[in-house]
């Protein structure tokens, strides 16, 4: 009888689920909209109901399911299995996730930060190729991360290890949502790249359509900056050279301290693929310790939206093995 873990990726728009084997084979995968109304009180009951319905509809035996893992936004207390401050879920006050899930299923349940869980997914079945030493950066609206050393997530004293988006890369820069100034997130996230473009546009008003678009007050996105760079727009190339420098130096500092085999770039910005790498890798190689620069791979994530559920299932198997 094959053992199965359930992975859950909880997001503000949708909740993704998967039944997985220990080998990483997806037996079933589905998603439901996240019911964020009513202060998010319906989220856990909807998760429980959806899992029970899909177990009944599948050919799985309840005894096959060994554990459930979940990645969640917000401040996660892994020991207590609680979440607080997940504002996109309307979870303002403490939500006792583990208590509700274990009462419903009577099997081990484990909870972690969503970026950490995505890091596990990419390390296990994605670009990390199951190497035990991997760092994952997610470049989206913000910048998050996960650090895996000897196959284990690094959490740190306060469970806040992996806050890569708040590495200081500029003494006098943009103000970050954390209250500090010059964090990596302010210049390497999707919104940060646009902020860099807006700051630099005036110097290219006569040579770039993209710069003129900004100066005319029209909306641009990080995607449009990458698309313009593909067309050799000098302003877009200038912006990405700045972003690439910040990201390359950040990756070099991470590699110098942790010596991972692979640093994986994920999130929406990573969809630029090799174009993004062409700006990041040279800056990494210039700033990393020479031996590390030669042996550390910088890769684009491969799992996209599946990283969370796969990582959550990996977490579930780990939890089951410890009980």
Question: Can you lay out the helices and strands and say which pair or pack?
Answer:
Elements: E1 4-10, E2 14-21, E3 26-33, H1 43-57, E4 65-72, E5 75-77, E6 82-84, E7 95-96, H2 97-105, E8 109-113, H3 114-125, E9 134-139, E10 143-149, E11 152-153, H4 185-188, H5 190-200, H6 209-215, H7 222-230, H8 234-258, E12 262-266, H9 274-287, H10 290-295, E13 297-300, H11 307-322
Parallel strand pairs: 1-4, 4-8, 9-12, 12-13
Antiparallel strand pairs: 1-2, 2-3, 5-6, 6-7, 9-10, 10-11
Q: How would you sum up this structure in a few lines?
A:
The protein has 323 residues and is an alpha/beta fold. Helices cover 40% and strands 21% of the residues. The protein folds into two domains: 4-121 and 306-322, ATPase, nucleotide binding domain (Nucleotidyltransferase, domain 5, 2-Layer Sandwich), CATH 3.30.420; 131-302, 2-Layer Sandwich (Nucleotidyltransferase, domain 5).
What does this structure look like?
With 323 residues, the chain is of the alpha/beta class. The protein has helices at residues 43-57, 97-105, 114-125, 185-188, 190-200, 209-215, 222-230, 234-258, 274-287, 290-295, 307-322, and strands at 4-10, 14-21, 26-33, 65-72, 75-77, 82-84, 95-96, 109-113, 134-139, 143-149, 152-153, 262-266, 297-300. It is built from eleven helices and 13 strands. Helix 3 crosses helix 11 (307-322) and helix 8 (234-258) crosses helix 9. It starts with a strand and ends with a helix. Helices cover 40% and strands 21% of the residues.
């Amino acid at each position: 009888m094959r053992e199965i873990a359930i992975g859950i990726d909880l997001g503000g728009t949708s909740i993704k689920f998967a039944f997985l084997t220990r080998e990483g084979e997806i037996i079933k995968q589905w998603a439901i909209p996240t019911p964020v109304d009513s202060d998010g009180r319906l989220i856990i009951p909807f998760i429980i109901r959806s899992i029970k319905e899909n177990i009944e509809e599948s050919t799985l035996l309840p005894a096959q399911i060994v554990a459930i893992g979940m990645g969640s936004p917000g401040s996660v207390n892994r020991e207590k299995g609680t979440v607080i401050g997940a504002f996109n879920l309307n979870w303002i006050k403490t939500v006792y996730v583990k208590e509700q899930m274990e009462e419903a299923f009577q099997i081990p349940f484990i909870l972690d930060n969503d970026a950490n869980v995505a890091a596990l997914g990419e390390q296990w079945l994605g670009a990390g190729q199951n190497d035990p030493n991997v760092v994952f950066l997610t470049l989206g609206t913000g910048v998050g991360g996960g650090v895996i050393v000897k196959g284990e997530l690094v959490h740190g004293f306060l469970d806040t290890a992996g806050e890569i988006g708040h590495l200081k890369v500029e003494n006098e820069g943009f103000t970050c949502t954390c209250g500090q100034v010059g964090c990596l997130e302010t210049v390497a996230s999707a919104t940060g790249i646009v902020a860099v473009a807006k700051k630099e546009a005036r110097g290219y008003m006569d040579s770039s359509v993209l710069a003129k678009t900004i100066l005319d007050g029209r909306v641009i996105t990080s995607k449009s900056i990458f698309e313009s760079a593909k067309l050799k727009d000098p302003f877009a190339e200038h912006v990405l050279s700045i972003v690439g420098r910040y990201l390359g130096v950040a990756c070099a500092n991470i590699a110098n301290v942790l010596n991972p085999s692979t640093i994986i770039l994920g999130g929406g910005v990573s969809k630029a693929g090799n174009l993004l790498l062409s700006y990041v890798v040279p800056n990494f190689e210039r700033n990393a310790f020479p031996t590390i620069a030669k042996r550390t791979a910088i890769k684009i994530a491969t799992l996209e939206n599946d990283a969370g559920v796969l990582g959550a299932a990996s977490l579930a198997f780990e939890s089951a093995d410890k009980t």
